[in-house]
Amino acid sequence: MEIRTTEPLAQALTSAILAGDVDTLRHLLDGDPLLSKARIVDPKGTSRTLLHIAVDWPGHFPKVVQTIGLLIERAQIPRPRWLAVTRRRDHSTGQRVPMT
After folding, report:
1. pTM as predicted
2. Which residues are CB-neighbours of 89 under 8 A, at least 6 positions away?
C-alpha cells in the first residue's frame, strides 16, 4: 500500500508518529491493518515505511520507543534472532544457561 504525502491519511500518520501520539497512531492502524506496512511516497517518488519515519533523523521524537514497538507489533516484523536470545552456552559445561 502506498500513500502520497499530500493525502490526509499520510499526514495524520506522520503527525502522530512525530508527536508521539501513540493512541492516535493505534486508532489509525486499528482502522486498516494494512496501514502498518504502508509506504508514504513523497512528490519525488521516494517512499518510506512508518518505521522509517519513526527513526528518521534527527530522531528523539516523543514516545518513539512505544511508537516503534506498536509499528513492529502491527506489521508483524519478526524479532531479530539476537533479540530473542535469552540463554547462552556455558563453555565449561556445554549446558545452555540463562543470560545474566
Report:
1. 0.74
2. 95, 96, 97
